[in-house]
Design a protein that fits this description.
Layout lengths: L2 H18 L2 H17 L17 H21 L12 H7 L5
Helix pairs in contact: 1-2, 1-3, 2-3
Length: 101
């Protein structure tokens, strides 16, 4: 499963909720985000793609799409997921010298 898939779905639900004035779609988006953040992270809570660390250029960008719409969901709800997450790859974390990595 790619984080991109959940990201596109989050973006679509947010737009549709706005267009239809239907807050239940935001609730659905929140459940999808929580599920993704529970299943697409490693034991340290870092968001990972199944191809890491050997992702192609496409694979390494998929998290960006997910995080973009996750951030949009936050802007709409002002709620932070209780799952705890860091949207970086180990490679990106190491290169940025972010600790703990």
């Amino acid at each position: 499963m790619w984080s991109y898939n959940q990201g596109v779905l989050l973006g679509g639900l947010i737009q549709l909720a706005s267009a239809l004035n239907d807050p239940s779609l935001i609730d659905t988006a929140k459940r999808i985000a929580d599920a993704a953040l529970s299943t697409l992270v490693d034991e340290d809570g870092v968001l990972v793609e199944h191809c890491e660390p050997e992702c192609t250029a496409d694979g390494s960008q998929f998290k960006g799409i997910f995080v973009r719409y996750l951030a949009r969901l936050y802007r709409v709800t002002k709620e932070v997921s209780s799952t705890g997450w860091r949207p970086v790859s180990r490679v990106g974390c190491t290169r940025a010298k972010v600790a703990p990595c």
